[in-house]
Amino acid sequence: MTATDKVRLAAFFTKLAVKRWLIPSLHVGPLVAELFLTENCNLRCKSCSCWLDNTKGELTTDEWKEVLRQLAALKILKVNFTGGEPLIRPDAIELMACAHELGISHLHLNTNGIRLTPAILAAVLDAGVRSFNISVDGPSALVHDRIRGRLGAFATTIEHLRAVIDQRERLNLKVRMNFTVMRDNIAYLPEIACLAQELRVQLYLNLATDHTFLFRAPEVARQKRVDQGDITAALGKLEDIKRRDPRWLPRYSDLRYIPGHFSELVQRDVPCAESQLKLMIHSRGEIGGCWAHDPALNVRDRSVANVIGSAHYREEHARLFRKDCVGCGSNYSLNLRWLPTTYLHDLLWRAGLKRLAAGG
Question: How far is the C-alpha of 51 from the C-alpha of 47, rounded, in Å?
Fold first, then answer.
């Protein structure tokens, strides 16, 4: 990240602080675009509903390229390519390369890893992608494949994840292994922590919810009902692992947030920086909203700049920032990272003055 990029990020979070404490009406424009290249997928995960339907009428290659040109003109700092599973689109790498050629300096890929073969990985890296989230929902084939709905998924994903990790130092890649905490895998949280440490990859914990737009289904609603006793037991074991070796594991404040997510989803004492940072553009062109609130506008009808500058977008995102919403917990880690008190909690934990098991 360049010095200019760091200044832009610092200015963004400074404005958020001003918005929170001094000028609630202050508009803070997005720096990151979350592009749902497709809402279709090649797996059948218990924590997701996108595979239940076959989404039609998605933006064409040319339409996505026009969106990217507009984002580049707006000096968007980073583009996240996501889905569904973005790599099932035949033009996914072409679109990544287009973003790179347009001068968007930070490109990120969310993937289940199934299609990230050596040839595809080489093409993705050549297209300029330097950041990856790869989903692993269990520490073994028995757990992961059952949750992901495909035999052999664990072996394939771990093989491809290892290949990305092998390129990390050479290309200065940022790589995270994403584990979605849910009813059917909460007991395996300590084991996934050990797997992250074995692979030497940063572990990120997504939290199951049926409020976000690709996760609204009865089975997802069942998965989000995680017993608090099971959470306490799993976090207690994970804390012991983290005390011995904190490398590659989530920070204390992130872990401390988890029980509340499953008992009081909105958590209004944590303003939503995520909703301000990211501009959401769905596969059929819908733009705006957030993870849990559907957009009302479309890039097929108006420009990206027009959307961001509209009264609708500004009013909507003012509400989302103060958590006047249904709640979702998406990217809670970002929402915590810009709060100074969380760093104090982390220091107290490292000093042995706070413990997850004690609810601290």
Answer: 11
pTM greater than 0.85: yes
CA angle 104, 48, 216 (to 5 degrees): 105
In 3D space, the residue among 161, 159, 110 whose CA is nearest the CA of residue 131 turns out to be 110
Residue 359 has pLDDT above 80, yes or no: no
Domain of residue 122, residue span: 29-350
**CA distances from residue 341 to 45, 152, 206, 269, 347 in whole angstroms, order as listed:** 36, 43, 22, 12, 10
The answer to whether residue 277 sits within a structural domain is yes
Confidence category of residue 157, pLDDT binned at 50, 70, 90: very high
pLDDT at 358 over 90: no
pLDDT of residue 261: 95
Structural domain contains residue 12: no
- Residue 238 near residue 190, CB atoms below 8 Å: yes
The overall average pLDDT reported for the chain is 96
Domain assignment present for residue 7? The answer is: no
Nearest one of 359, 356, 291, 360 to 329, comparing CA atoms: 291
DSSP 53: S
CATH number, residue 316:
3.20.20.70
Say how far apart CA 344 and CA 354 lie, in whole Å: 11
Residue 110 in 3-state DSSP? strand
Whether 14 is in a domain gets the answer no
- Burial state string for 178-194 with b = 16 or more CB within 10 A and e = fewer than 16: bbbbbbbbbebbbbbbb
Mean pLDDT of the region 168-186: 98
